[in-house]
Amino acid sequence: MKQLVIFDLDGTLLNTIDDLGAAANYALKECGYPVHNIQSYPFFVGNGVTRLLERVLPEDARISPVIEKLRDKFIEYYDSHNTESTMPYRGIPELLSRLHAKGIRLAVASNKYQSAVEKLISHFFPEIPWVAIEGQKEGYPVKPDPSIVFDILSKCPTPKRDVLYVGDSGVDMETARRACVESAGVTWGFRPVKELKEFYADNIIDNPDEIIAIADRNTFG
Question: In CATH terms, is domain 4-15+87-216 a member of 3.40.50.1000?
Fold first, then answer.
């Protein structure tokens, strides 16, 4: 049985896309740039706020001073509105409770900035005793760099064969691969199954209950 399951946040535990899109569009509008349809945002997110804002800007505006100004506006809005439309995916609260009841430790590894990750986790999953809640921090590399997984393992020492990493994107699958832990790509998130396969997901799952079966089986590798 797995001893530790690490979850991505956006597109895996929570459907955050409407609030992310609203915040980015607010920042764009405040700075005089055209906004995007919310349906476009699943392909803009996944690599942190700075990369998101770079992607939504017109190509000739993707320079550091503009991105920094947009980032300030984004955070100003998102910090006040990030639970308005965001919701856990169906079955996720029950999944977390079942994993915890089995004695499996739980952690979060996100490219969202740290304070927002902590707020969302405490708001939506206050009963779960997470062993680590890791978001993007100043001066630290973002996923797919595996440092965030190693930080979690430093707080919760666990053999890598007993770790499962769950995410919804190629970034997540690559993070798990670089960290040498088993991956599970979920199909209910922001990215298509094709991307999960291209990045060599060890498991592709359509329902949160399938994570229980993976966590229950013999160790990986």
Answer: yes
